[in-house]
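A common beginner's mistake is to predict each chain separately and then try to dock the pieces by hand. The better habit, illustrated here, is to supply every component at once so that their relative placement is modeled jointly.
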Amino acid sequence: MFDIKWIRANAEAFDAAVSRRKNVSVRSSDLLAIDDRRREIIVRLNEAQEKRNALSKQIGQAKAQKDEAKAQELMAEVSRLKDFIPTGEAEERAVEAELRAALSVIPNLALDDVPQGDDESDNVEYFGANGTAETAARQRPAKPSFSFAPKEHYEIGVAEKDMDFEVAAKLSGSRFVVLKGQIARLERAIGQFMLDLHTTEHGYLEVQPPLLVRDDALFGTNQLPKFEEDLFFTPHGDSRLALIPTAEVPLTNMVRESILSEEELPLRFAALTPCFRSEAGSAGRDTRGMLRQHQFDKVEMVSITTAETSIDEHERMLACAETVLQRLGLHYRVMMLCTGDMGFGARKTYDLEVWLPGQDTYREISSVSVCGDFQARRMEARYRPSGEKQAPRYVHTLNGSGTAVGRCLIAVLENYQQEDGSVLIPEALQPYMGGLTSIGGK
RNA sequence: GGAGAGAUGGCCGAGUGGUCGAAGGCGCACGCCUGGAAAGUGUGUAGGCGGGGAACCGUCUCGAGGGUUCGAAUCCCUCUCUCUCCGCCA
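With all components supplied together, the output reads:
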């Protein structure tokens, strides 16, 4: 969410930057018009309150001096002028709500190095801050080669038996899956491996958050008010709770409505949780297999930083996510999303796309975004700079998947499949699989 | 689910209708003291909004929202959360 004072001071820059984003027609002049009305009512209200307060203080003094006649006279005077105050207060609340509503549906502005574009076809491959295609290729696992036609994950022998969409449909309908036996264990192993990697090697604090959250938390991380239809809700008393669409929501909101000290930053949280998405807008897309589900596991990373360090933290977080795929020996590429493909709250986003030989294509497995102070302003999350006395500033927030567990399971199955329908277990996962080196063999 | 108690600044905690944005303490900042530190000591130390070039001024905020009143941290109502006891329960 934007600071109206910043928009007032930087109206042209705001208009130029906001016009880079897709489907956004708002102009600074619309917002400033609301703000002008807001300031006008505040001035009038403050003047009335000032008079009322001054007179009330005199009444107190008159009563203390037992000057009842004077007190009565003053009280009559206050009664006359205070008619305006209740209506003025109501007017101020209304116009402030109007301004907030207008501001809360404006997406974040892209950083200067984000490519301009309409959709994913305008994303550009990214090789690291100082990297090239060559340096990236040395660091990233190679694309596997097959002596047979690799299958899609749900066609592979071991999955045909233990990845059960039919029974899931009986329980819950489409876009659910029941995993069984060694496939279920493999999914669990992948999640454990990733979470352990981030907590033991990358400095993230392991967190087990609630999976049900209130509307305020969803507003903080931008799911509300614009993307309500993507969520599952459950009634709760007279209100409701949402199933988290990503652990970004609880992890980021852990710092909401607080003032941290600069010394505590950066805060780094990681969690392995189920995620729930209605997929309202994607009917008919990716219906086969478990690529796009209503429920899936994901390891999420969240960093809370100062304003100065968020860009560096973004590169660091990308590297943390990449390490997962490198350890698993999975080929991937990194895309910098263009302005048209970025999420609502992001200033810049990198997607990790893992190679799926069965589909013969790259598919998103992780998304790493830096949001600046956009979410912090929605959450009222600030920090007090150290040293000389300074006013609190908004923190910067970042989030990234590290990575999606379900999609990683797909990638392991497809990349490590054998002709006989069995699947080799990557070395990094073997300790989590009781030492097994393959599953689904005869 | 029933009964009761509570929510005050970065933290702890006093304050039951007026001069209270709020005692005191802790923490923090800057000074004094010291060879240096600790201790001691002095001063300062909430946030939002509006006005102003600035110094500064005004206003709002004592969990949230309403109400009573000339005036509310204090009284009333609703809600949220926390704690204690009882019940139920993985």
